[in-house]
Structures are given as C-alpha cells and as structure tokens.
Amino acid sequence: MSEFIVNGGKKLYGDVTVQGAKNSVLPLLAATYLSNSECVLHNCPRLSDVDASVAILEHLGAKCRFEGNTLTVDSNGCFSSDIPETLMREMRSSIIFLGAIIAKCKAASMSLPGGCELGPRPIDIHLSALRQMGAEIECTAGRLICTAPNGLSGAEIHLNFPSVGATENIILTACKAKGTTVIYNAAKEPEICDLASFLNSCGAKIKGAGTPTVVIEGERELSGCVHNVIPDRIVAATYLFTVAMCKGAIRIKNAIPEQIFPFCHILQKCGCDVSVNADSVTLRSHNALHNFDVVSSGPYPGFPTDAGPSLVSASCLFKGTGVFVENIFDSRFRYVDELKRLGADIKVVGRAAIVTGVKNLAGAKVEAHDLRGGAALVSAAVAAHGTSVVRNIEFIDRGYENIEKVFAQLGAEIKRK
Ligand code: UD1
Asked: Among the atoms of ligand 1, which is closest to the Cα of residue 128?
C-alpha cells in the first residue's frame, strides 16, 4: 500500500496541462471493440482504470500497445464475449463493455458490477434499454447472461434519469442494431460528445450528442480512427480548487472553457480572479476568499458530483459557511471525516455537507476511501500546515495521472512512499 507524504502550507504557482479524461477514455476503449481495424487514442491517461480496461480488451482478444500517452487498440477479428469476474471487479464501470460486446457478438456474459465505494450502483436503466433493443438478459448467480437471438433493433428509448453509462451503452449498441435508435432524456456530459465524435470518425452516424435527444443510425461498419481524448474537467477542477485554497496562481493550458465554467464561476464568486481565453484558463487567488452559498450536484451542465469533494475541501478554508448538496450518489461523504482530522469544520446532514471555513488546516494522517474523495484529501493536505500522510492512494491512481508530480510542479512538497 503506497501513501503520500505531504509538507503542506505553500502557495502554488505554475502551468498545468491536464491529462486526458478518465470518463471519456473508458467508454472510448469499450468502443474500440466495435471497430474492424486499428484505433489510435492520443492523450490517453496512464491510470489503473485504463490498465483494467486494457486487460479486458486483451482478454477479449484485442491487441493493445502503449507508447507514452498514445494507446493503439486493434480488435479486428475478436469475437469473445465473456468477461471473467476478476477483471470485472478491477473496475466498477466495466459495465460499459456490455453495449459494445452485445453489439458485436450478439451475446455477452459478465459478472454484475455490484456496489461500489459510492454506494449501490444499479444498472436497471442500462438493462431496460438493451431489452427494448431486443436483448434477452438473465441475471443468475451474480452473472449477466445476454443474448440477442433475433438480433438487435433500434428503438425509441426514454430514460427516466439521464444516466451517463446507460446513454453510452445504448449508443454503442445502437451503432450495430438494425434501424434507428432515438434516446430521449440522454445524458449531455462532454464525455458523451467525445464518444460520439470518436464513433462518427470510425463511420458511425450519431446526431445530437450533448443534447437530450440523441439519434443513432444502426448497422454501420466501423473502421479505425485517430482520436484525441478530451482533457479531464474533473482533474482540472481539483487543481483549480486546490490553488484557490492554497493561494497562488495556475494556468490550465488545455482547458475547454465551457466544460470548466461551473468551477470558474463559483471560484470567481468566492473572490478568485479568473480569466478565460479560447483554450486556457488562469486562476489567481490572492485575497481572502468567502464561501459560496449553496452548490448542488446535478447532471451536466449542472455541477458535477465528481467535483463535489474538491469543492468541499477548498471551502474548508473559505470564510463563512457554504453548503454542498450531493444529489447523484448516496454515500459520497466518507472523505468528510478525514477532512475533519485535518481540522475542517463540516457537518453532514442527509445529502448536505455544511462547511464553516477555518483559518488553517493542520497536517494529519488521513485515508482515501474512493477516487475523488481521495484527491480532495491530497488537496487539503497540500493546503494544511505541517506534515500529512494520505493512505490508500491506489484509489487516487484510478483517475489521476501522477497527481503528486503535478502538485510538486506547482511548488507543493509531496512525495509518494
Ligand atoms: C459516470 C461517471 C462517474 C460520475 C457519474 C455521474 C464514468 C466512468 N463514470 O458514472 O464518474 O460520477 O457518471 O456523473 O463515466 N443509476 C440508476 N440506474 C442505472 C444507472 C444509474 O439508478 O441503471 C443511478 C446511479 O445509481 C446514480 C445516478 O443514476 O445515482 C447516476 O449514474 P450514472 O449517470 O449512470 O453514472 P455512471 O455512468 O455510473
């Protein structure tokens, strides 16, 4: 088990190029399984969740090759359709392979993703949509057995919640189904647009990604393509919130401004100076910051649930009281008790974290329990005076490429042990 040792309390200054988005690259990797030739993904982050997806692809028969941050996947001729439990357990979001496998092989067998660190992770929306497209699905002894004896057909699918993963699974399946699929109340996250843009480059016909209605024409032959993974907006948020709380200045060199607007808007209201250019964002934090009023997480373009922990962590040092309401996942506040060890003043009431800013945080030993909560603890440790130890950093490696190197480059004293 590795840990970070942090000597906190320093101001942070510098430029950062944000890694490729984990939540984009995972569905993109599933999508490569549908292609009949080589796909090249540039700006592919080196993360343990990416390694887990590559292990699944290799198990399915694909050839994968990493050169720096470029990943080449060739799934030509692969028709394996089962994922063993050991590989499914590596990564909860492996359910994203369901749509691609059933589309290509007309059958799929994999273990159920089960619960995760954030609470139950139901997949009823995914399964109901695939059934509407002709899939027959049985869940026995913790395994999903899916077949499509009469093939898959396009359908009009109304989602009762704009689930990101379900929207992605439907898009993947619909590319190969007979006829046209229309998704109503689809997720509008930038990662959905990235998936559609990748698939369209491969020869798919997907319209409306990023809006509530996505239309996919089926029975497309998909070839390979070269694609740049979009920058990770959640990682960008972590760095912006950390510099806000530590004081200093950061320029995010490859930001997509509209994707990080929710963070910049809040930080500006709290007293940071934010300037946005076409492809970069600069944040300066020199004055005393005051807390936001209430921020609630919600589907895009709302405030992302994944950025909640970074926001709460930063607000521990903002003057006054701020309330963060978590609307997407049930058990997302485990990091709060750890922030309290660093001296934070936070009360959790139901879905709300009520934060009253303190003057300083003080170094302590803390434990990550999940990916985003873990990153928020690293931010707090970087801001806290004195020495902190952040344990269980394997969670953080699932989604952050060398977080310690980025903070060190900004002037923080942090090392991995
Ligand atoms: C994706 C992201 C995750 C992010 C989340 C919400 C990836 C790999 N992960 O997860 O980081 O936090 O979007 O932005 O992209 N739900 C159901 N039934 C379903 C599916 C979802 O009830 O069949 C519920 C979930 O329990 C949750 C909510 O819907 O409460 C949102 O889930 P969803 O949008 O599907 O998130 P993921 O795709 O799992």
From this structure: 23
Beta bridge partners of 366: 390
Give the distance (Å) from ligand 1 centre to CA of residue 255: 24
- Residue 116, SS3? strand
**Measured from the CB, is residue 303 less than 6 Å from ligand 1?**
no
First to last CA, the chain: 9
Mutate to test the pocket of ligand 1, among 24, 92, 131, 164 (most ligand atoms within 8 A of CB): 164
Read off the amino acid at residue 42.
Answer: H
Tokens of 65: 């090759």
Q: Are 348 and 318 in contact (CB under 8 A)?
A: no
Report pLDDT for 93.
84
Is 118 within 8 Å of 329 (Cβ atoms)?
A: yes
Residue ranges of the chain with pLDDT lower than 50? none
The pLDDT tens digits of the residues spanning 13-37 come to 999 999 999 999 999 999 999 999 9
Give dist(CA 398, CA 370) in Å, integer. Answer: 9
Residue of the CA atom closest to atom 25 of ligand 1: 121
- Cα 275 off chain centre by: 25
List, for residues 168-223, the tens digit of each pLDDT value. 999 999 999 999 999 999 999 999 999 999 999 999 999 999 999 999 999 999 99
Enter the pTM of the model.
0.97
